[in-house]
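Morning F.,

Quick status update on the modeling queue. The single chain you submitted on Monday has been processed. Sequence for confirmation:
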Amino acid sequence: FGSSSRPRISLQPAIFDPLPNARTRRTAMAVTKEEDVQMMLVCKTHLGTRNCDYRMKRYVFRRTVDGIHIIHLGKTWEKIMVAARVIAAIENPADIIVASQRPYGSRAVLKFS
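Structure tokens below.
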């Protein structure tokens, strides 16, 4: 065994990573998600209303003692990312129309336009 000139062969299987930066991207995406969720918490976007439509039940995290529905911010973030991908995929930005039925959405519409 002593000093041999033969190269050592590892018996452990080689790890093939088809996307070497995928892990880094996932970590960066997780950090971004946490930062965005923290900002949504500060803005109190997780606070819903007392009324909950049957279509919204899957996005409700829980209900407070007062009857206020708490929105699941992880699912909200995922839907925002889907919307961002759709908007980014549109070739001509002039084709994008943003509308808000609610009065408190008008500020966001003005900022987007």
